[in-house]
Design brief:
Length: 263
């Protein structure tokens, strides 16, 4: 199959979206690890409806849903395991940190009963005491680009607060957002196997996926060259191939070049 369904839990009006398999066009278009790059990637991978329209506009997705869609793309592309090379702060030894994305997603799953938090029919939330808010989206993130971290956080919360006092309710709203829809942006404990020192390593799903795609762009160029040389296909034809199929063709070409046709 060249498409797959992913649940959507935090964006009003959506239960799931269908993503296409990653293709060279999307891999080649990645230029950075920011919000805009992530939204452009999703724009290219969301399966369009019969009328050609997207089921949703990527900037309108809740940030927590975008994280989970990017996690689904990572799993589809690289499988479930996250691996990263770490240098120990204490003894400078190099070691590997690895964990399961599925396990992390299970850990981040909020409790079904959110004490003191009511989810309303329109997908917004109300806290005891009347604070009414919605979850942040890509549109909110784009609106605060270029601001200092403190200014960006303040304006983002202001955009999400629908009823309440921003100065008094900021801490409660931030805490509730993290309980309702935790982001895949966190510090993870890593223990050095050589000296036992424990340190914190930051993990951000968006940055991790986009960095992986950026690092493979030279490999993509080589694969395009391989297929164009072997099959005389155009650049667009090659970039339109699902990544898995493109790589399978390249592997077959490599095997054939190493194996004599006649013995």
């Amino acid at each position: 199959m060249s498409s797959y369904a992913v649940p959507v839990n935090y964006s009003p009006g959506l239960n799931q979206v269908i993503l296409r398999d990653l293709r060279g066009h999307q891999e080649q278009a990645v230029e950075g690890t920011g919000t805009l790059d992530a939204l452009l990637l999703l724009d290219g991978l969301l399966l369009r409806m019969q009328d050609g329209k997207l089921p949703c506009k990527p900037p309108e997705l809740a940030t927590a849903d975008r994280d989970r869609l990017l996690a689904a793309i990572y799993k589809r592309t690289y499988l479930d395991k996250i691996e990263s090379a770490i240098t120990c702060e204490a003894c400078q030894s190099a070691f590997d940190l690895d964990f399961s994305l599925d396990a992390l997603l299970t850990q981040l799953q909020p409790d079904k009963t959110l004490e003191g938090i009511a989810r309303l029919d329109d997908g917004t939330f109300r806290l005891a005491g009347g604070v009414h808010f919605r979850l942040p989206t890509g549109e909110d993130e784009l609106a605060v680009l270029g601001l200092s971290p403190d200014e960006a956080a303040h304006l983002l919360l202001k955009r999400c607060l629908l009823d309440g006092d921003l100065e008094q309710d900021t801490a409660r709203m931030q805490e509730a957002m993290q309980v309702i829809a935790p982001l895949m942006d966190m510090d993870l404990a890593a223990c050095c196997p050589e000296c036992g020192h424990q340190q914190w390593v930051h993990f951000n799903m968006q940055s991790f996926l986009l960095t992986a795609l950026l690092q493979e762009q030279s490999q993509l160029a080589w694969e395009v060259h391989r297929l164009a040389s072997a099959y005389q296909w155009s650049l667009n034809e090659i970039l339109d191939l699902p990544r898995r199929l493109r790589r399978a063709y390249v592997r077959m070409i490599d095997v054939e070049m190493e194996t004599p046709l006649y013995r």
